[in-house]
Amino acid sequence: MGAYILRRLLLIIPTLLGIMIVNFTLTQFVPGGPIEQIIARVEGGGDVFAGISGGAGDAAAPGGGAASDYAGARGLPPEFIEDLEREFGFDKPPLERFLSMMWNYMRFDFGDSYFRSIGVLDLVWEKLPVSITLGLWSTIIAYAVSIPLGIRKAVRDGSGFDTWTSGVIIVAYAIPGFLFGILLLVLFAGGSYWQIFPLRGLTSDNWNQLSLLGKVADYFWHIALPVAASTISAFATLTLLTKNSFLDEIKKQYVVTARAKGLPEGRVLYGHVFRNAMLIVIAGFPSVFIGVFFSGSIIIETIFSLDGIGRLGFEAAVARDYPVIFGTLFFFGLISLVVGILSDLMYVFVDPRIDFDSRET
């Protein structure tokens, strides 16, 4: 197992490097970089893309470019543009900037945001609790509902219960999370019908004055709708995976033998079948959490006005805040790769018979 983990850890380096190279290269051809954003603000131009007529933006411009190299920069002193380039590091060649960035990232020095007076790492830690709240609660609820439901569907395979629950699950899976979130807002957050849940934020304005029980109630009151919206599509995969895993195990000879010995059905299912059937479901918990954490956070956080990582990434991309974009990309890319290793370790924890050392790759 140790050799397998070492191989996986070593693979993180080229994988993460490839991710950063691709994304850094793409930004060299995207118009409207940070310097053009500042130019638009200085000249009151509003949308930075309004004046772009095919230029590649500051990221693509060579070091030491003149003011005319930037869309909307006509009339600004060249010295002003040169000062901006030096401040943002764009007076250096792209390769040098990339190598310098990766050297800093290897030391977990992510620099400071271009447009916020705060370090990237501090900014991430500030926004992280909101996204963890959505991802963790959505994953826990999805597992808490999907596993019992999947087992029930496997036991009653082909029955009316199995049929109508499958229909409900498929419909829920087909509904996009953002659309369901908008529906919840319209129905229960004062959109057109009932004002039952708050419209935005994770806590009320009087949070500090509430008792401990009041804080807990207020917290769950605020996360009810966004968690429901981010969980709606997670039930289908987990439920059907649980059902199919149980069906495969129930048909095996050891289950037939256990039933022939007269063991109670509950002991057969949860004493013998559960451990083998739940291997792939339980071991996949880390990857499911990361999937929910990344996939739904941007839209859900935007709809419910939650100040989390997803919304931070969206705003950084719009503003071309490169330190935030690349810093979060490196940070969460590393987390995703490590979680992949943790998922394999979960397989071994659930079933010690698995030996990854016997694998050649």
Low-confidence stretches: 45-68
Could you please say which CATH topology of the largest domain applies here?
MetI-like fold
Overall pLDDT metric = 77
For the record, the CATH architecture of the largest domain stands as: Orthogonal Bundle
Gap from first CA to last CA: 12 Å
CATH level-1 class of the largest domain: Mainly Alpha
Radius of gyration over all CA atoms, rounded: 26 Å
Shape: globular
Summed up, the domain count is 2
Enumerate how many helices there are, as a single number: 17
- Biggest sheet, open or closed, and with what strands and sense? none
Could you say which structural class the secondary elements and strand pairing correspond to? Answer: mainly alpha
Residue share in helix = 55-70%
Q: Report the β-strand fraction as a percent range.
A: under 5%
CATH superfamily of the largest domain: MetI-like
**Annotation, overall tally of beta strands:** 0
